[in-house]
Amino acid sequence: MQAVLEPLGQELVLAHSGAEALKHLLQGDFALIVMDVQMPGLDGLETAALIRSRERTRHIPIIFVTALSREAAHVMKGYRQGAVDYLLKPVDPEILRSKVQVFVDLFQRGRALERQAAELAERRRHEAELTRAAELEQQLVAIVGHDIRNPLSAILATAKTQLGAAPLAPAQQKAFERVERCGERIEQIVALLLDFTRARIGGGLPVVRSEGDLRELVQRVMDEFHASHPARALVAELPAAPLRGAWDFDRLAQVLANLVDNALKYSPADGAVRVRLEPGVGGTALLEVHNGGDPIAPALLPQLFEPFRLGEQTEATVKKSLGLGLYIAKEIVRAHAGSLQVRSSAQEGTTFRVCLPCAELPASEASPCAGTGSADPGLPLSA
Fold this sequence. Notes:
By secondary structure, this protein is of the alpha/beta class. The chain has three domains: 90 residues, Rossmann fold, CATH 3.40.50.2300; 72 residues, Helix Hairpins; 173 residues, Histidine kinase-like ATPase, C-terminal domain (Heat Shock Protein 90). The protein is built from nine helices and eleven strands. Helix 2 packs parallel to helix 3, helix 5 runs antiparallel to helix 6 and helix 8 packs antiparallel against helix 9. The C terminus is likely disordered.
């Protein structure tokens, strides 16, 4: 029997008695039992009755092999004890292998269905957890958007009113200016958290497009940084002609401001920050922000655009960032069907490169900015 079934490539467990067979059945799972009716001690029919009486083993199919006659009463007794087939010796090897293979296949399919059912149950459990998490995030948006922003707006309005009123004593002036600065900082944090939550819940940040000149936007943002950082070298390389397109200009100003602000923080005080805007191929606009500071650590590059990731902290940056700016910048660029990349090395410094299609693309159309970076360490890294 063993020699006949070995070509099937399945694990075969031999038992020389009914008691030994029952012992094996308690120790493992079996696809099929091929059993002789005539065995020492418990015969095949008695063994089958015990197998059927146990919950663990009652569903295992049994093929009886016997040298006895095929009398109807004898065969029916075997079937009543749980036999699925009844073979008379001498058994044809091909027939036995074919019958066994059928039950092995059924067992394997049953196991596959069990795995699929378990995976489906796990997936549903995970989806339920995600739904609960999304509901909590929505509650957070409501809390941050209303319960924090409203009183914060009142505090800022009071501070601004006092600063714009009659001359204050120096100590009062300093106190209200501090309230104003801290309030504006909290407003920025609240805005980042709201953007982060919207991006995670809605699968991306919404953008409101309008026609305009990207060159004007870059110049305006750079003028603001010149005013706030008069001692820093800020260089803008802009095209001679307008670079027009359909974008959400407020959101793109947010992207550029984040990149320039990071460049200022992570570069030496006497180093220049360069911003270059130029038309790209395929109806795109290319925007680069470069600084000559220390390079980004290669180990950090793959996670740089993930939320709550911070670069190496300096005196200028420590405890002043949530690590959401680049993540939100990436989401804004992605909402425009664009790409945001970075390359960083000790020789060349660090450059962030934004590619933006100038026109809104149909959902089915591939972006001309796709696939414009590589993942080599220290070289362009697509986000």
